[in-house]
Amino acid sequence: xxxxxxxxxxxxxxxxxxxxxxxxxxxxxxxxxxxxxxxxxxxxxxxxxxxxxxxxxxxxxxxxxxxxxxxxxxxxxxxxxxxxxxxxxxxxxxxxxxxxxxxxxxxxxxxxxxxxxxxxxxxxxxxxxxxxxxxxx
Length: 137
Known about the structure:
Layout: E1 10-11, H1 12-19, H2 23-32, E2 39-40, E3 46-48, H3 50-64, H4 69-80, H5 86-120, H6 130-136
């Protein structure tokens, strides 16, 4: 390994702490190609530079917003392409937003049904339970 002394490198543990992503997930992101393969020391330890940390923070924020690995791959490609039209980024984000809206509707319907079942149950010492009856129907 030939590291320049002007560069600052982070171990995987430091990169995990700085980015908010576990070491295991950093290795996974390398394996699936979201993050470039780390520079290795002669002893085989992974080292990351500040650009790698920037990419990891991008990935973490994207994951926090619920983007899939495939979507993050597309977002990273767009982010790194300074000539990309922003409409492509917006289209991807709008598609994800629509999927989130659908998921919210599904979760609200699940919540309403569960609330209805819970309201029907007296929660006493009798074995009759409208919640179990509702789940069985």
